Amino acid sequence: MTTDGILGGLMASIGNTGFFRQVREINRRYAKPKIKMTPMVRAALLFLQIYLLFLVLLLGYKFYTLVR
């Protein structure tokens, strides 16, 4: 892969600013929640994650049927 062109310049400038280091630091800081969650809250969050996955799959299926 070459580093020529606009994309290569953009990646070089992002790499020079320490962007990825900052993202890793933020992810490490917030990896574990600092609040207690009740089982009902955990169940609600699990339901929302499943619902979001369902919506993404439905959107992908709609896109597939339109393109085909």
What report would you give on this structure?
The radius of gyration is 20 Å and the shape is flat. It is built from 3 helices and no strands. Helix content is 78%, strand content 0%. The mean pLDDT is 86. It has helices spanning 5-17, 19-29, 39-67. By secondary structure, it is mainly alpha-helical. The protein starts with a helix and ends with a helix.
What's the SSE blueprint?
Elements: H1 5-17, H2 19-29, H3 39-67
Helix percentage: over 70%
Which residues sit in consecutive blocks of at least 5 with pLDDT less than 50? none
- Count every beta strand, where a strand is a DSSP E run of 2 or more residues: 0
Radius of gyration: 20 Å
Number of spatially distinct domains? 2
Please outline what is shown here.
This protein is mainly α and 68 residues long. 78% of the residues lie in helices and 0% in strands.
Which short descriptors sum up this protein?
2 domains; 68 residues; 78% helix; mainly alpha; flat; 3 helices
